[in-house]
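EI: anyone free to look at a 87-residue chain?
SC: sure, send it
EI:
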Amino acid sequence: MTAVASSAPMLHLHLGPTTIERRGLRCVRITDRRWRVTQPGGAIVGYLDERDSGSWVVARMTPDRRSFMELGSHPSFDDAFDSLRRG
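SC: here you go
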């Protein structure tokens, strides 16, 4: 039997939570490496993206709600979340 290479993206099973409530904000996992952070009413605060290196990049919604501004890279999810929360 011959193995066939596939160019389809690899899907990963999520074993952890898909929604986390923290300090008045909701974090929702939307991909393997991306979390959306919202206010209780549903307004998007920003995104937390995990990089291949294991660091986390924070993108915050701009005040005019038209784009996102990168706030930097952090060594852990908790540090990235705290950076986004503090703004």
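EI: DSSP finds one helix and six strands in the chain.
SC: 👍
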